[in-house]
Amino acid sequence: MQTHRFTLHPQTAFGTPLVGDTLFGQLCWGFVRRFGNDWLTDRLQGYTKGNPFLVLSDAFPQGFLPLPTVPGKFWDESKEDRKKLKKKRWLPVEEMESPFSVWQSCAYNDAEAAERVLKQNHADMKIAQEWLKRESIPLQTLRTQPHNTINRATSTTGEDMFAPYTQTQIWFHPEMRLELYAVLDETRVTAEELVAVLTDMGQSGYGRDASIGLGKFEIKRDETFSTLPHSKDANAWLTLAPAAPQGLGFDANNSFYQPLTRFGRHGDAAVHSGNPFKRPLLLAKTGSVFTPINSFEKREFQGQGLGDLSSARPETVAQGYAPVVGIRMEIPR
After folding, report:
1. CA–CA separation, 230 vs 228, rounded Å?
2. Residue at 138 is within a domain
3. What is the pTM of this model?
4. Does the residue 7 lie in any domain?
């Protein structure tokens, strides 16, 4: 398996967060559109048996990874306000070799991460500095967008299904850049094939309301990227996407995560299958830490592929895998 890094430049608002399992689901439809259903069926052989052809991460602010989800006892004591410390959730990649206990103090909150990305990517540094003097730049902004449905019998809105409603949209700063990691089995899918389908997705839109212009982005592959960073003498894995760790033999006393219930729906043509809903999934959120019971082995991903999700389309699978980085977690005595 080989890991590749891609830089995403959002062009519009998004209706759906850029998370690994959702990206994988839409990419599967993209593979079908470009290469055909038989092509995808062949690549999914063994997917639920620990043999994925592709594993995707969430999209993170450029130059950052998620701060591990661990109890506060793992971090050095700090005089900084507790509420401010809890907002620090982005670890600069270059801090991976720092002692684990200082990672929280090295981490950035959303506004600090956005400021760093803006400085890296703004064409005119003087303009960027002026921006930052005037206001704090959020990593992303949530806004509500009004919608309505017209009753063709009355040519107006009304009640029940015709009542006006609002939906949340995710907006990024024009200079925001996000990084996506993809672990590939290059005997089954090449980086060029993945770039082609990601480009298709960026042009047509990702997630909810793509049909009305949301979820568009430009994508660029980092040709100089070699592999994800791994801490020296690593003894645990940090996940970069929601994962399904159930039954994989991790050390329960030294593994930490927040649960996530995913209520999925079919996309693309399967929306019209008569039953678009999938069975709920229980996952561990991005930023989870899993420690093996036995010796640590370097891996590019952890988790498992999930099946038996849909009565309408029994062949449906979900990404319960996540790209991982090895970390040296110092367990307090």
Report:
1. 6
2. no
3. 0.90
4. yes
